[in-house]
Amino acid sequence: MADLILVLNAGSSSLKFCAFDAGGSGGLALVIHGQAEGLFSSPRFTAFDAHGQPAGEHAWGEGVQLSHAEAITHIADFLRGQGSGHRLVAVGHRVVHGGAHFTQPVLATAAILDQLETLTPLAPLHQPHNLRPMRIIAERMPSMPQVACFDTAFHTTQPPLAQAFALPESVTKKGVRRYGFHGLSYEYIASVLPDIAPEAATGRTVVAHLGNGASLCALRAGKSVASTMGFTAVDGLMMGTRCGTLDPGVVLYLLDELGMDAGEIEDLLYRRSGLLGVSGISGDMRALLAADDPRAVFAIDLYVYRICRELGSMGAALHGLDALVFTAGIGQHSAEIRRRVCEEARWWGIELDDAANARGGPRVSTPTSKVSAWVVPTNEELMIARHTLALTQGAPA
Ligand code: ADP
């Protein structure tokens, strides 16, 4: 009977899952993945096998509310119904915040869960949702090993200067500092670079994680030395619906002069800004690339400009640049955005190979390009599964 590792990524209204066979000789193999989404409006469950073929589907209907506990029950029943050849041995979870203390994944005992709960004020929009499934599973299956994997942990190698805000020590001591996010994605990329792009693995490399959320990470020999996201995941690059770096004076202006309250400002900065806010059309890059509208053009121009400005900042932290790696939805799939970024960043010594870029890489720069450019698909779920296996069965992560 094969051992199964379940990876859960819980959001406010969705629960994504991936199941990996841990027993194979070739390492962790994806068996099935899917999600329950729209939990509080119009819940829908979909699942796909390892080849991307539909494996399950269910809709509860408009206006129905499905709790996280009910979604977990549905996923568990679905997995059980998939055959008797597997035995669930551990569950790995994506947890947005590990604070200053959690520098690597950890077995989530009851005491650890209590500790992680105290970090909720640092990530109120994500942390409670990440922790909820852990509590539910601990209650239902007390002996099931659970592992918490943090989006912040990979960045704890950054030097103190990169982690600091220029704020009084009394404020810093309360945990107000730069943490960085998308760490599981960067960790996965760093783990595969030695095979795909050895010079990027050992050199000064910027990884551009361009999904709905987006950030850059500066890697020196595979370790994070700086990133564009700071205290929260709203910092840095322009994103699908998040504004990225903003003069803090703007927040005070919104508060004092425009009379907005904290909830309204949060909604503006996280859900109504970025590509969506600037274009007024969509936060989805595909839709904007297809739109024949000057507002879409301007939004994309700003998106590329912001990446290239921040690339300069990452390059300064690294004292130079040897390689640029694109990943996540936009980075992996949009040859057009890669082309625009590489052209704007040409002065760094990046020379794009148009044919290779159109093919999707992995190398998208010419052989003579001073700075190499790459496309490397990320796999945060596999990274979580590796950590879960390592912590529960002693396998290397
Ligand atoms: P998340 O951060 O939610 O995991 P993804 O990494 O899947 O999201 O990235 C979603 C973004 O990727 C969306 O803006 C989507 O439009 C964009 N995207 C996906 N495929 C393409 C494509 N072929 N061309 C341009 N953008 C794409």
From TrEMBL:
Substrate binds at residue 94. The record marks 182, 242 as: Transition state stabilizer. It catalyses: acetate + ATP = acetyl phosphate + ADP. Mg(2+). Can also accept Mn(2+). Coiled coil: none annotated. Its EC number is 2.7.2.1. PANTHER family: ACETATE KINASE. This is Acetate kinase. It comes from Caballeronia grimmiae.
